[in-house]
Amino acid sequence: MDIDDFPFNFKKGSRAVFTGDFAVAGDVHLGFEEEINLNGYNIWEKTDEITKKLLSLRAKKLILLGDIRKRYTYIMPKEGGVLIKFFSVLANAFEEVIITKGNHDGGLEKITSRFNNVTLESEFVYNGIGFMHGHALPSKKLAESVDTVCISHLHPFVVMRDSNGISYRKDCFFFLDIKLPVKTYHNSRLRSGIVIPKFNQYIGGSAEFESRALMRYSKVRAKMTTDLEIL
Length: 231
Description:
With 231 residues, the chain is α/β, with parallel strands linked by helices. The protein contains 5 helices and 14 strands. It has one domain (3-224): 4-Layer Sandwich (Purple Acid Phosphatase, chain A, domain 2), CATH 3.60.21. It has helices spanning 32-37, 47-55, 77-93, 109-112, 140-143, and strands at 9-10, 17-19, 22-25, 61-64, 96-100, 118-121, 123-126, 129-132, 148-151, 157-161, 167-171, 174-177, 192-195, 221-224. Mean pLDDT is 83; it is low at 208-231.
């Protein structure tokens, strides 16, 4: 499947994709600064900056594909205050906010339940597309109901090398041809997927996503794109 065949609108330079009334963004990892600063750095909090960039997407509704938090464990009071402020702004700016729960999002229900138009789901289907975080395989129900899945989680990037031989990494979109195990997914319609880049540009990618993480999708043929999708 080529990029033109995917049911999304892309905007050059944007880390989000768009479909219908929704903007779709990947991992934001609020609170990542604390972990980095423990290693001797001094990075100021980026929550307001990330929030403003989400607002600048100018969509009626918003899907966040999980990993709202950076921490895995219970939500401390300070983090809880940051999350309440974050969702208060989003709830006022968007008609609807849907989060597909990620592996970093333990206890997030305590925060999202405060807002009538913010919901937390394991999976979500809209416009014939399945949305999920990507740290687990899709349910049989989702695989049997959609042709395309949209995930984040993997923080995809490509390594670029300039004329001087200097290498650097660029975040990108990652397109997949998917073939799920027939033994488990007897009636799967799922044939293609898109991994969107992390919305938080300050966190790293994973050098392992090509070899280990994608193996969760069994026989997967992945295609990197190098034009519009390089950020």
